[in-house]
Amino acid sequence: MLRKKIEKIIEGVVGQKTDLEHPNVIEHGDFSTNIALKVKIDPDKIISELKDNPLFEKVEKAGPGFINLYLSQKALQSELTEILDKKDNYGQLEIGQKKKVQVEFISANPTGPLTVGNARGGPFGDVLGNVLKKAGYKVEKAYYVNDVGQQIVALGHSVLKDDEAKYKGDYIDKLNKLNKNKDVFKTGQWAAKYIIKNIIRETTKQMGIKYDEWIFESDLYKSGKVDKILELLEKKGLIYEKEGAKWFKSKKFGDNRDRVVIKQDGNKTYLPGDIALHYYKFNDKKFATVINEWGTDHYGDISGLMAGVEVIGHKDKLKIVLHQFVTILEKGKAKKMSKRAGNYVYMNELLDKTGKDATRFFFLQKSPDTHLNFDLELAKEQTKKNPVYYVQYAHARICSILKKTKSSKSDFGMLTHPAELELIKELSKFPEIIEDIAGDYQVQRLPYYSLELANKFHGFYENCRILGEDEKIAQARISLIKATKIVLRNALELMGISAPEKM
After folding, report:
1. Are residues 339 and 191 in the same domain?
2. N or C terminus of the chain with fewer C-beta within 10 Å?
3. Residue 387 and residue 432 in one domain
4. Which of 7-11, 27-31, 59-63, 481-485 has the highest mean pLDDT?
């Protein structure tokens, strides 16, 4: 990886870790660093040490303490060779050191079909898991099923269609006809299992998601794990009684308030089950890190769970990513697609209309902490205005060219056109994208990178002929688009999006 090589070289000169960035203006170089400012050293001294390195065409002083670095053609040619040699393994990193990581995502209550709101985290969690695996972690993907509690009772009432019914829709009508139970809670539990198996699993499959584990809250209760957590809190002197309820002293661990764990009626709150879930994750499954993707409406639950995780001895190992809401737009207006689902738009309806590829790409384009407006018409459009179509078209165009050509030994020294060099530079950024996402979980980098790579390829295609060109130049360019195909396909596969060979 070019960035790592450069960081190591500069670190050898200044004796300190170096941060590199890509300048926004091409004329300012391929990389820029403020290391001279950080270590308070004369930038001319660093430049003199770097200027003769074959990695660089030019090294120059920029603003106060800043140094701009321009890659040599030799460095770019070397990166191209690496891509062609490693193929699908290009971008594979070892930073994870095979540490076990779990990504838990969606985990919506099993009371009905997945909506676009609670399923927003599906593409995010799935792709984050893929990227972490590419970065060298041992990854498992999980769905946690909350099949205990008041929502199951409410589901039972709804299926029985009594006065306390809460949920509605065609699926409730169907469950009502299939149900053979009369007890409210048993009806709710049966209905929840049916919904998971026949509705939610089918939707996640349609989204292209494959989970390694489905964890049921009811199993945590049956195994005694929830009671063990309460016993542990009692032994540590972290439980007290007030107003007929039992409270967890979570304020001692940074929470903004203490939390009820057993209500006045004797029923447990969600918290003991959630702590038991994470005891299972960290102690039984031995995950080094757990990443939970939640809806923003669960923001208030974070500090209580973090306190519980600290009590069981795993402080700072749990990461929580919140996602904002989704609005489906048709002709600029919010759309309701479900006749009997109130204000909800079901995820399977959206997938039926726009397909897996467009749905995933559009969901991935926005950071989870920002509101997502999903343009239904654009997602269905089969033109270059549609970003996923634009990226897939680049891959299909490469495949079409390669079918018309024959490749032989290439001289990468023939690649001197600015469009060729810009394309190679963009290809070389792929390992950086993997490393950056693995560090901060900002998966939206991947669709934007694929768009930029497709854009650089289309620019190359418009400026550099292959068919009918001088043989040496043609062969070098064939190798270049082969490398582009490798990286573009890798990016699409990480996003769970198909890489078509013709369109």
Report:
1. yes
2. C
3. yes
4. 481-485
Do 91 and 132 lie in one domain? The reply is no
pLDDT digits (tens, 9 = 90+) for 119-151: 999 999 999 999 999 999 999 999 999 999 999
Please give the pLDDT value at position 342. Answer: 53
Are 437 and 443 in contact, with CB atoms under 8 Å apart?
Answer: yes
Coil, strand, or helix at residue 231? Answer: helix
Structure tokens at 313: 């001895």
Q: Residue 365 in 3-state DSSP? A: coil
Match 């090294």 to its residue by tokens. 59
The answer on 134 and 43 residing in a single domain is no
Residue 297 falls within a domain, yes or no?
A: no
CA–CA–CA angle 285, 125, 485 (5° rounding) = 115
- What domain range includes position 21? 2-71
pTM for the model stands at 0.94
> Do residues 502 and 400 lie in contact, with contact meaning Cβ atoms separated by under 8 Å?
yes
Q: How far is CA 340 from the centre of its chain?
A: 32
Whole-Å CA distances, 130 to 137, 203, 357 = 10, 19, 16
Judged against a pLDDT cut of 70, whether residue 339 lies above it is answered with: no
84 with 186, same domain: the answer is: no
Above 50 in pLDDT, residue 340? no
Same domain? 129 vs 188: yes
CB 154 within 8 A of CB 164: yes
Residue 94 pLDDT exceeds 60: yes
| Residue count (the chain) | 503
Tokens of 502: 């013709």
Number of C-alpha atoms within 13 angstroms, CB side, residue 32?
17
Dist. CA 147–CA 132, nearest whole Å = 29
- Asked if residues 302 and 320 have their Cβ atoms less than 8 Å apart, the reply is yes
Closest to 117 measured CA to CA, from 331, 332, 363, 358: 363
Report the candidate in 374, 398, 408, 400 with the shortest Cα–Cα distance to residue 453. Answer: 398
Specify the number of domains making up the chain: 3
Phi, psi of 102 (to 5 degrees): -115, 135
Mean of the per-residue pLDDT values of the chain? 94
User: Are 85 and 205 part of one and the same domain?
Assistant: no
Residues 387 and 451 in one domain: yes
Neighbours of 227 (CB within 10 A): 14
Terminal Cα distance for the chain, rounded: 33
CA–CA distance, 421 with 437 (Å, rounded to integer): 25
Query: Taking a C-beta distance cutoff of 8 angstroms, is the pair 88, 486 a contact?
Result: yes
Question: What is the β-pairing status of strands 289-295 and 318-323?
Answer: parallel
> Which two structure tokens, joined as six digits, stand for 456?
């650089």
End position of a domain, from candidates 380, 396, 415: 380
In a domain, residue 460? The reply is yes
